[in-house]
Amino acid sequence: QKMMMTDPCADFCSTYENTVETGDHLDAKKGPIWLLGECFELDKEGGKRKLKEVIYSKLWFTYRKNFRAIGGTDYTCDTGWGCTLRCGQMMLAQALTWRHLGRDWRREKDLSQNHVYNQLLGEFLDRPESLYSIQQIGRHN
Description:
The chain has 141 residues and is mainly α.
């Protein structure tokens, strides 16, 4: 199934957020931090920068509101009950990112040319036709 989007970045930004903090709180940290099996030595040159790049590259799905109702229900918001589904989406997105882009892939500032990433991201949009949307996960059969 091929996902067609006129402006994938705009569609993404209107639905999801991928935030990374400034990282200022990392300045006081010492020693290693482990994230998904990768060690980041914060005391060493470039350690904090590398950690920020990895965090910035993770897809972040959080509570949403005003999406199309999940089939057979009136739910258009997942606040208060959707955390497990969103966590599942994030784990699946991470696995698919590693599978299709590689474990060392890092997000760039301009994603408009990264068709694989945009295709993957489109499968998680909160739309019934998106393969891994909350509507697909929560639909009634």
